[in-house]
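Morning. Coffee machine broken again, so started the prediction first thing and wrote up yesterday's gels while waiting. Chain of 137 residues, entered below exactly as on the submission form.
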Amino acid sequence: MAGQGEENKVEIKEIVVEVEGAGRLVVELDSERSPETVKAILNALPVESRVNRWGDEIYFTIPVEVLPEAATEDVEVGDVAYWPPGKALCIFFGPTPISEGEKPKPASPVNVVGKVKGDVKLLRKAEDGATVRVFQE
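Came back before lunch.
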């Protein structure tokens, strides 16, 4: 039967993040954890912003304003999240200044929206003020 089981199918969406001087990452979005946040991010694309470094995290403002949605401080290397207080997208690639050990810790709870596919460590080359572009191909 056509359409049967469609409601259980999760559509995988990917976005590209290009960071000047560091490279290009593909992010697989997870709309199960923070569906409204993912939808708002996709609707805002394409985006161009400027990188801020905070330890082994980059974050940059995006034209999205959503409330905390399943917000957490429990993130892993490679996680991509929206930080509601800063209206920013964050990508974690190692410890932040408030981490205990090697695990990243955000400044405050974030809405996790996806995971980097590939080597997130290339972001170690990212510098404050670098141009970042986010788009779908």
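DSSP finds one helix and nine strands in the chain. Going to sketch it on the whiteboard this afternoon.
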